[in-house]
Each structure stands twice: as C-alpha cells, then as structure tokens.
Specification:
The protein is built from 13 helices and 18 strands. The protein is of the alpha/beta class and 457 residues long. The protein folds into two domains: 160 residues, Rossmann fold, CATH 3.40.50; 277 residues, Dihydrodipicolinate Reductase, domain 2 (2-Layer Sandwich), CATH 3.30.360. Strands 7, 8, 9, 12, 13, 14, 15, 16, 17 and 18 form a ten-stranded mixed beta sheet that branches. A six-stranded parallel beta sheet has the order 3-2-1-4-5-6. The radius of gyration is 23 Å and the shape is globular. Bound molecules: NADPH dihydro-nicotinamide-adenine-dinucleotide phosphate. The site of NADPH dihydro-nicotinamide-adenine-dinucleotide phosphate has 21 residues, from helix 1 and helix 9.
C-alpha cells in the first residue's frame, strides 16, 4: 500500500467535500497507518498551518459522522506546498523523490494536459500512481490525446480515471442484484424490460459553481461519465469475474454497442436551461443571470439522451439518461420498467401497472413495485411495494476509491479505451448541439423540467 498521497487542487471543492472526508473515513476504519502522509498542493501561498485550518473546517462540515480523532489524524498528517504547474521545481517538490506516491489531479479538466506534462517532467518515483478526475478530457479527441500523453510514462495499471458513482453502495447492489439472484437475470433482457431510466435530477441550482459548470454543462458533467458508467453495469453481460480485466471488458462491450435511439415523436436528445423561479420558498435567478455565466455558451442545465444497444440482449429496450438542475424535487435513481404481462383474466377489473425495480442513488435504497390482489370479494389489483435499505457503508464512495488507489486495485477505475468509448457515444450529440440542430429549451426553476419531459412515477 502506498503511504503518500499528493493532491493537486487541494483548495478546491472536491478535496474539501469528498477527498478529505474519504481519507478521514479510511483512517477511522483502520486503513491508514501512522506513516500516511498527505501533501496538499495548490496555487495559494499558504503555510502548513493555514492549510490545516482550512482542512479542519472542511472536515467538520463534510465529515461530521467520522470520529474527531480520525479527522484530527488526517489534518496532522498533512503538509502544504504551493504549486506552479509551469515550474518543474515546484511540481517536483510536491511529488517528492523518495518513495512511491499517488498524485491526485483534483483540477479543472482544462489544466489536465499541463498537469500531466508537469508530473512527467518531475519524474514520478517507481511504483507511483496518477489519479484523474472526471470528466476525462473535453471531447473524444481530447480524451485520445490525454491517453497518449499518459501512456508515454505510465502503465495502464498506474493510471486511475475515477468515477465515484461506480463506488456507490447502490451501484454495487445493482451488480449483486443482477448477478446473484436467479429471479432477475433471466428477465434481464428486452423481452421483459421495456425501458431503463438512469436519472439524476436535483433541486440544487448553480450554487456559485459557474467557474466549473458553465464550461461543462449537464451532458459532460453527468451523462458522459456517471450515468454512462451506470448504464454499463446495468446492461453488461455477466462477467467471468469482477476483477479489472473481465469487468472492464464487459463494460467496453456495452459502450461499443450504444446508439442514439431515433424514433418519431420522441427525440433522441433534449437540452434546456432554467429560467428564474422558486424552489423551497427561495427565489432562484435565471441561469444566464448567475454570476460567472456566459449566456453565449448556451450551456444546458438539463440534458436527456435516449439510447439503444445494438446487441442480442437489448435490441428493443430504450435507455433514457437524464440529468437536470433546479427542478422542484430531487429524483436520483435507476428504474427498470418491466413490460406488461402478456395476458390477464378477461374479467380483471383494471390493468396492473408494469413492475418497476428502482435502485435509489440518493438516498441509496432498493424498491420493487409489484401488483397483488386486494382484500375484496371480487378479484382486484393492488400495489405491493417491497423496500430494502442498505446497512450504512463502511466507507463513502471516495473512501473506497482512495483505498483502491493506495492499494493499486484498478477494477473500479475507468480504462483508457472505456473513457474514449464513452466520448464516442456522445460525440454525435455534442456535434448536433454545437450546430444548433437541437433547440435549447427553457424551464422555470422549481418546475418539473421542460415541457414534454416524459415522466415516470
Ligand atoms: P474547484 O474549481 O473547486 O477546484 C479546483 C482546484 O484546482 C482549486 O484548488 C484550484 O486552485 C486548482 N487549480 C485550478 N487551476 C489550477 C492551475 N492552473 N494550477 C494549479 N491549481 C489549479 O473544482 P472542483 O474541486 O469542484 O473539481 C476538481 C475536479 O474534480 C474537476 O475535474 C471536477 O470535474 C471533478 N469533480 C468534482 C466534484 C465536486 O463535487 N466538486 C465531483 C466529481 C468530480 P484555485 O483555488 O487557486 O483556483
């Protein structure tokens, strides 16, 4: 296990909200030894003490469920270095020369190329690893270039392209539910499943993050990585093992078979951005009036794509991926819509609703919606809902990912070809949107999205 982690971009939101809490959870669970060192690096001219205060504040806010002693241990194990990516000496000082190190690029995607170059020039000690956050590149060409750049000095097993959705308990449950239960896998195909929705809709608006979000938008922020990763796990063929090669080969098979699903009356893609409105009693300004937003970029805060898989198992099933900001309510789940039964007794008083299997992403839970018979004299149909909640996970998703990085386990990290295939899936969408072929619709903040948004309850 590597005992040193360097974070580039350590003053950013990701580090405070997820990486420091992930490390504190690892320490609390006994995975980090007293030898562990964190080198926090960013552009601020701070002392160790200043950064430690900053880290302690974040930990109090974002990791209040972790014992205070573990939070304190992480703070104590931290040193701060000022980072200038254009200065090889500064980068080398952050990386150190002695033992292997994991270097985590918690940086905006626009500086990934410069950061990788800087790390390469600084020469990583043998056995080191490099971690890259999503989105991996800004488009397919950029992802290919990044992969070339990385392959010049690292083996694939030393590169971690992380996507924390894959480490969520629900997403792991999805795999377990599919692969370890006789009752589901035999139904897991287009003969029995009409549609699969993968949805991340939130009531949060921009929340001051224009600097990052306005250059990215919902499609690149959520669909291109998190939601496509879930699609892979929902739709892949059962792998021989859950080790890195088998799991990632099966995921790549899925990505290679994905096509946009064009059909009359239901567009393959939709995009929109929010206008002024109210959410939970608070006024929300129009997206274009938020500080730091450039309206000319036409950044979408709502993105939806309808996909089909060109393979035996899934031909005829629709996969709908959708993400949106500033809606009336949160809805974050994967929903499996089973087809209706082929026949009912002719005197059944009403049609049953189709069965639904829901994997809640936030909150994380599992629900199966069935139909049963009511307690009446005549046969009547009533809903039956089975709900399972998880035991609290030992580690949050970023704790699990950081443990994988430190121990060298790559099964949950995105392989280079997988990252490229994910961009290939959405390249036609990006091209069509850039040409204005799909109108940028509007929806009021606090609504249920642009009109005609297909709703499934
Ligand atoms: P922030 O903008 O909050 O932080 C970025 C960090 O990078 C800051 O410390 C910033 O320093 C530093 N930085 C920016 N440019 C440079 C540069 N040229 N040289 C050195 N340091 C630089 O972004 P986030 O923390 O939110 O995101 C970081 C990455 O994590 C992104 O790739 C994002 O997509 C990904 N991510 C973020 C999530 C989140 O919830 N925040 C969730 C999942 C992924 P300074 O403060 O000086 O600008």
């Amino acid at each position: 296990m590597i005992e040193r982690l360097t974070i580039f971009g350590a003053t950013g939101d990701l580090t405070g909200r997820y990486l420091l809490p992930g490390l504190a959870a690892l320490r609390a669970a006994g995975y980090l030894s007293d030898e562990f060192q964190l080198i926090a690096a960013s552009r601020e001219d701070w002392t160790d003490e200043q950064y430690r205060e900053h880290a302690a504040e974040w930990l109090e806010r974002s990791a209040s469920n972790v014992p205070a002693s573990a939070r304190r241990d992480v703070v104590t194990a931290t040193r701060y270095h000022k980072l200038d990516l254009a200065d090889p000496a500064s980068v080398a000082a952050c990386i150190g020369r002695a033992e292997p190190v994991a270097v985590y690029l918690a940086l905006p995607p626009s500086v990934f190329h410069a950061a990788i170059n800087a790390v390469r020039q600084a020469r990583l000690p043998t056995g080191s690893r490099l971690v890259l956050e999503k989105p991996f590149g800004e488009n397919l060409r950029d992802a290919i270039e990044l992969n070339h750049q990385l392959a010049e000095f690292l083996d694939e097993g030393e590169i971690f392209r992380v996507d924390h959705f894959v480490a969520m308990t629900t997403v792991q449950t999805l795999l377990g539910t599919r692969l370890a239960n006789r009752i589901f896998e035999s139904l897991w195909n287009s003969s029995h499943i009409a549609e699969i929705e993968i949805v991340w809709e939130e009531s949060l608006a921009l929340e001051g993050r224009a600097g990052y979000y306005d250059g990215v938008g919902a499609l690149k922020d959520m669909l291109q990585n998190h939601l496509l990763q879930i699609l892979c796990l929902v739709a892949m063929e059962p792998p021989l093992s859950v080790s890195e090669r088998d799991l990632r080969d099966r995921k790549v098979d899925v990505l290679r078979s994905v096509r946009l699903m064009e059909s009359a009356g239901d567009p393959a893609t939709r995009r929109a951005r929010y206008t002024a409105g109210r959410i939970d009693g608070h006024d929300i300004p129009s997206y274009v009036d938020e500080e730091g937003v450039d309206p000319a970029r036409a950044t979408e805060t709502f993105a939806e794509v309808r996909l089909e898989l060109d393979n035996w198992r899934w031909s005829g099933t629709a996969f709908r991926l959708r993400s949106a900001k500033a809606l009336a309510a949160d809805r974050k789940e994967v929903v499996i819509h089973f087809r209706p039964v082929p026949h009912l007794p002719i005197d059944t008083p009403q049609d049953p609703p189709p069965n639904l299997l829901r994997f809640g992403l936030e909150p994380e839970d599992l629900t199966l919606e069935l139909t049963g018979a009511g307690p009446h004299a005549r046969f009547s149909l009533v809903p039956l809902i089975l709900r399972a909640r998880h035991e609290p996970a030992e580690l949050p998703p970023y704790g699990r990912l950081l443990l994988d990085v430190l121990t060298g386990e790559t099964a949950l990290s995105i392989r280079g070809d997988e990252a490229e295939e994910s961009w290939r899936v959405l390249s036609p969408v990006l091209d069509a949107w850039a040409k204005g072929a799909v109108p940028l619709a509007e929806y009021p903040a606090g609504s249920s999205g642009p009109v005609q948004a297909p709703r499934h309850s």
